[in-house]
Write a structure and sequence with these properties.
The protein is of the alpha+beta class and 287 residues long. 21% of the residues lie in helices and 38% in strands. It has 6 helices and 17 strands. It has a 17-stranded mixed beta sheet that branches. It is globular, with a radius of gyration of 18 Å. About 4% of the residues have low confidence.
Length: 287
């Protein structure tokens, strides 16, 4: 069985977020897919299966995502990695539709320069005035606002430098996640960043970014996710409103780092785009 490993949200190897991708004729049983994801020990392993398409020049697939410990309902970077693999080796179509349980259809296109453009539903966050007291302990830096969406508590920090330098308390974050069934993210305006920190965090293109973020999901086997496309369906709308923009570039400030190009669309949709780089093609042997 062929498997690909792709670095998503990066033009370079060893940056962005690595995901494994398997293109199947039929679904494997759930336990086997979970074991493959555990064996890979990546943030996500994606499984895709082609289904009949009713539109010309559109290929349709079902897609599922597994961390090393659980199946998740939405993963942006492994969607990007899967689309990259399909456009590379499996389809001549200009558009891919991923059919996702409970979330509808993700519309995926590839630009001439290789950028993968993904049309997702927005998961806009709401501001919390009364929030769990444990949130005050999740990082060792101050924050000024708390939001929540379907995926995470979102802490708006006082500066981008605080986001980059924060040390998370993973025990508290795991406890919060188990109690409230969501993860934790931190974010800030990228303009509030010391240039010496910027140089360490990423490239000389720091001025292009609108906001910075990090994402923690230890309850799913991911202490800190390198780049989290799904989370930016909430973060980008939040910063679009704060900054008065509909086109934004987010930077996820993990050790690997990654850039996400975000455009707010009509009908409560968002386009999140990024690049990908193939790391590996391999044959795996499962009974």
């Amino acid at each position: 069985m062929k498997m690909y490993q792709v670095d998503a949200f990066s033009r370079e190897l060893f940056k962005g977020n690595p995901a494994a991708v398997l293109v199947l004729d039929q679904w494997l049983d759930d336990a086997k897919m979970q074991n493959i994801a555990l064996e890979n020990n990546l943030a996500e392993t994606a499984f895709v299966k082609k289904i009949a398409s009713t539109q010309e020049n559109v290929d349709s697939y079902e897609i599922r995502w597994f961390t090393p410990t659980v199946e998740v309902d939405f993963c942006g970077h492994a969607t990007l990695a899967s689309a990259f693999v399909l456009f590379k080796d499996f389809t001549q179509a200009k558009t891919i539709h991923f059919h996702v349980k409970n979330l509808g259809i993700f519309i995926i296109r590839q630009a001439e320069d290789g950028k993968i453009e993904m049309n997702f539903p927005v998961r806009k966050p709401e501001k919390l005035v009364n929030y769990p007291a444990l949130l005050n302990q999740v990082i060792d830096r101050p924050f000024k606002e708390v939001y929540i969406n379907a995926q995470a508590f979102i802490l708006v920090c006082e500066s981008a430098q605080d986001v980059i330098e924060a040390t998370p308390n993973l025990t508290i974050i795991r406890q919060l996640a188990l109690e409230h069934h969501i993860s934790t993210a931190i974010t800030a305006n990228y303009d509030d960043l010391d240039l010496t920190i910027t140089a360490q965090a990423n490239s000389s293109q720091h001025h292009e970014y609108d906001y910075v973020a990090r994402y923690f999901a230890p309850q799913k086997g991911i202490d800190e996710d390198p780049v989290t496309g799904s989370m930016h369906t909430g973060l980008a709308p939040l910063w679009a409103e704060k900054l008065g923009k509909t086109q934004l570039i987010g930077y996820q400030a993990s050790l690997r780092g990654g850039a996400l190009y975000c455009s707010l669309l009509p009908e409560n949709r968002i386009e999140i785009s990024g690049y990908a780089k193939l790391y590996m093609q391999a044959d795996i042997f499962v009974d």
